[in-house]
Amino acid sequence: MCGIVGIAGKSEPGWLARMHGVLTHRGPDDCGEHHDEAACVRLGHRRLSIIDLGGGHQPMPLKSAGLWIVFNGEIFNAPELRRELEAVGCEFTSGHSDTEVLLHLYDREGEAMVERLNGMFAFVIHDKRRGLLFGARDPCGIKPLYLWEEGGRFAFASEAKALLRLPCVARETAPASLYHYLSFLYVPGVDSIWCGVRRLPPAHVFRYEMERGELETRAYWRPEFPSGSARAEGALAEDLRGELRGAVKRWSLSDVPVACSLSGGLDSSAVVGLLAEAGAEFSTYTVGFTGEEGADLDERKLARQVAERWGCEHHEIIVEPEDVLDDLVKMVWHLDEPYGGGLPSWQVFRAMGQEVKVGMTGSGGDELFGNYGKFREYEKKPWLRGALGLREVWQPDGACWPDWLRWPFGTGYHALRRYFTDAEKERLLQEKFEGEPSAALAQRGYDAAPGGTLRDKLAAFDLHGQLAEEFLFMTDRFSMAQGLEARVPFLDPQLMAFVYGIPAHQRTRPRDLKYLFKQAVADLLPPDLLTARKRGFVLPLGEWLRGRMRPLVEFLLEPGRLQRQGVFQASLWEEVAVPHLEGRMDRTGRLWAVVMFQLWHLVYVEEASEEAPTFTWQDVCA
To answer: How many CB atoms lie within 10 A of CB 260?
Structure first.
């Protein structure tokens, strides 16, 4: 796992070092640069060595083809691809580098090569002969890639903070991104929080023609939901077990020790069981909470049962409020963009990163099996089904409500799940926003998602929406901050294709979302875990904001400060903060979203930090 950067167009040699220097946490083991002055291309790389420890230095060339590459990620079917390439005459110089496989595959198959890959990746190839840069991001967006272009220059980086090190990139906040952040607690879509800095979407490639200065992007993959008849559940569960076993085996490929993040839930526990069943040696790490405020979230007992069942070396990390506060500014810095979600993964990855370089997680399991039950509200309420234009679940004759009836009901996908409403944002933001409403943005994404049923379309939309833009975003930043490669075997393309090929009504049930998955892995799990209610992997933020974090809230949201800052109206203090602090209302989601944005704004805008901040939350409140 690594950090990649690059510039095409007029630039100074020292700019590249500034870019990859701020990404040292992503690759503490090695760094490299490639400067092609004739082509006006500079490539930089920071390496965390996982595969082919002695080789694999980047940027890596295939000089006979005029190619150079910088690559972040792992290609888990690289051994098979290498054997195939060797059989047709490709000569390799490295021991077993997956980076070199990418170069030879591109040389033989061109841009279509990306469709052959099983893994998590973001890479950019300088094709000198064709005068272009070609880049790609994996199907689920596990690995990030930011792009910027202006005035005949083009730049890319694994994290937006690297682009901010360029003197030609303006540090200007995008109003639309702030507006949507307040709805979803993360920045959705292609545009980042910075004006002019965009993300390459999941499952997309880009081509930058250097002579013309033209950037094009296109999708190369989308989930498919083939229509088919139902199968016997026993046979389905058996086949699913085989696909799960194969995915975990592929994604555990490593030349260094591996560990597992074990939450005590079904998904991570199944990964542990499948790894152990395959004879792998690994350790496990679990977060625990103390006190009444954290007791309901603590899953240490269940996680301990799983670890003991398989004889794992088990570690329990107890999270106290002070631990979160002490690292809060660091988290904000590493996150790059505003994020108002949960933070306990930081503690897990920090502990794991002190011992190993690879950590397996259960991320993606919820999206594959039941999608958190989001479909249930729409299936229960006919007016919501009509609002989504769902002919197949509305009336037997195929009728649905006309378009003019959709929006008067405040409907659309995510209509039930926004944090700040449009009316609240209208009152609380100083700058009036006249762009696309957040509900319309989500609805547009839902409408474009593939699938013939409600459950399929919701699964497809959230795969490249909330999963990529919130959960995988957070997982990448928090793991790489600790020099740890987090892997997500549930997002193995072969496994996803199998699961999405199961008819939606068999894949999940409204009252038992993971019933089929449970059948497939039941023998690997303690009985208590199969019947335990699902707990969110979150912190008890509501109580913490009223207690230990109160001084931070009071400083960041003080009315006079808000007015001077120019983002929020001073009335935000009375409308959002005071009711929560006094215990009259639970405003945890809204208040946390604003506090985290304010910390981000302090670090990246007010302080304009170019290096990791050295100040703490105590310094902020002093």
So the answer is: 31
Residue 172 near residue 183, CB atoms below 8 Å = no
Nearest residue to 115 (alpha-carbon basis) of 16, 196, 218: 218
Question: Which of 147, 152, 259 minimizes the C-alpha distance to 204?
Answer: 147
Q: Are residues 100 and 61 in the same domain?
A: yes
- Per-residue confidence (pLDDT) for residue 403, from 0 to 100: 36
Q: Kindly list the averaged pLDDT for each block of 10 residues, start to end, along the chain of length 622.
A: 93 95 93 96 91 82 96 96 96 91 97 98 98 98 98 97 96 95 94 98 98 96 89 95 97 92 91 94 87 61 91 89 84 96 88 94 93 80 53 32 34 58 92 90 89 89 94 96 96 97 92 94 89 65 87 95 96 96 92 96 93 85 78
Spatial strand order of the sheet with 2-8 comes to 30-36, 41-47, 2-8, 153-157, 146-150, 197-199
CB neighbour burial string for 101-112, b if at least 16 within 10 angstroms, e if fewer? bbbbbbbeeebe
Partners of 359 in beta bridges: 259, 486
Which residues 6+ apart lie within 8 Å of 603 measured at CB? 329, 332, 333, 609, 613
Whether 604 and 329 have beta carbons less than 8 Å apart is answered as no
Whether 225 is covered by a domain: the verdict is no
Domain assignment present for 227: no
Give the pairing of strands 258-261 and 358-360: parallel
Q: Which of 355, 353, 334, 358 is nearest to 485 (CA)?
A: 358
Contacts of 531 (CB under 8 A, 6+ apart): none
Phi, psi torsion values for 585, nearest 5 degrees: -145, 155
Spatial separation of the C-alpha atoms in residues 69 and 65, rounded to whole Å: 12
> How many domains does the structure of the chain reveal?
4
Q: Is residue 173 part of a domain?
A: yes
| Per-residue model confidence (pLDDT) at position 371 | 85
Same domain, 203 and 277: no
**Domain span at 606:** 541-621
Is 308 in the same domain as 336? yes
* One domain for residues 354 and 493: yes
Q: Give the C-alpha separation, 26 to 483, whole Å.
A: 6
Burial of 399 (0-12, 13-18, 19+ CB in 10 A): exposed
The span from the CA of 3 to the CA of 136, in Å, is 14
Specify if 27 maps to a domain.
yes
Q: Tell me: do 95 and 20 sit in the same domain.
A: yes
Which of 573, 543, 554, 545 shows the shortest CA–CA distance to 622?
554
Q: Which tokens sit at 517?
A: 């998955």
Q: Do 206 and 273 sit in the same domain of this protein?
A: no
Angle 321-335/345-353 helices, nearest 10 degrees?
80
